[in-house]
Design goal:
Elements lengths: L11 H44 L3 E11 L8 E10 L6 E2 L4 E6 L4 E5 L9 H10 L6 E7 L11 E2 L4 E7 L9 E7 L6 E6 L7 E4 L1
Antiparallel strand pairs: 1-2, 1-11, 2-8, 3-7, 4-5, 4-9, 6-8, 9-10
Length: 210
């Protein structure tokens, strides 16, 4: 008769130990797989957010772009342009003093880095006078701040979600009638905001550019 209590038998305790070992190994493997998946998804999410931030412009033009005529005798070109900028919906505050402004036109005018006037945040009168006086250097500045509250909202050249700023950008002598001009606004973070307009065939003191 076969001995039911033989040492070769696979006892219930041994089976339980094996089962527990399998469960522990499976749990650890699952934890590692899930952890790697979470890390990968978080990395992908951060990459997408960064890509969207870099690929989308965080600024927009509000209203028209206006060109101001050069009133010097014998000159028929724009002296400077005015444009109002604001943040796009959900945009974070932006320091415009870190912005790079570039210019080009189809008459050979080109400036890869239009310098900011020494006092970027001058008022409209001082800003426009400075640009007119330094037209040969083609500078830009902030002529006006809208919805600006000293000490509580926009400070310096910081563009806040609830504020707007009027930029004054000096134009070269190549901005004759029927000239196609392009101004690129490159913030420190985000895509370039290109503004392309055509100087009308006949100039007046101030005209919207389309």
């Amino acid at each position: 008769m076969k001995n039911l209590y033989s040492d070769d038998a696979f006892t219930g305790l041994e089976a339980a130990i094996v089962l527990i070992a399998f469960v522990v190994v499976a749990a650890v493997f699952s934890y590692v797989v899930l952890g790697a998946g979470f890390f990968t998804s978080q990395t992908a999410q951060a990459t997408v957010h960064t890509g969207v931030q870099q690929a989308s412009s965080s600024m927009e033009i509000v209203g028209n772009v206006y060109g101001v005529e050069n009133t010097s005798v014998g000159s028929e070109n724009l002296k400077y342009i005015n444009m109002t900028v604001a943040l796009t919906a959900g945009g974070t505050p932006m320091d415009l003093s870190q912005m790079v402004v570039s210019y080009s036109d189809n008459n050979g005018g080109h400036n890869a880095n239009v310098p900011a006037h020494s006092a970027v945040t001058d008022g409209m009168f001082d800003c426009t006078v400075a640009i007119v006086e330094q037209a040969a250097r083609q500078e830009w500045c902030i002529g006006q701040k809208i919805n600006y509250q000293t000490g509580t909202a926009t400070t310096g050249a910081m563009l806040d979600p609830n504020s707007q700023m009027v930029l004054v950008i000096g134009m070269p002598s190549t901005t004759a009638p029927n000239t196609k001009i392009t101004v690129n606004l490159q913030p420190a973070v985000g895509a370039v905001l290109p503004i392309t307009r055509t100087v009308p065939g006949g100039l007046t003191a101030v005209q919207p550019l389309y």
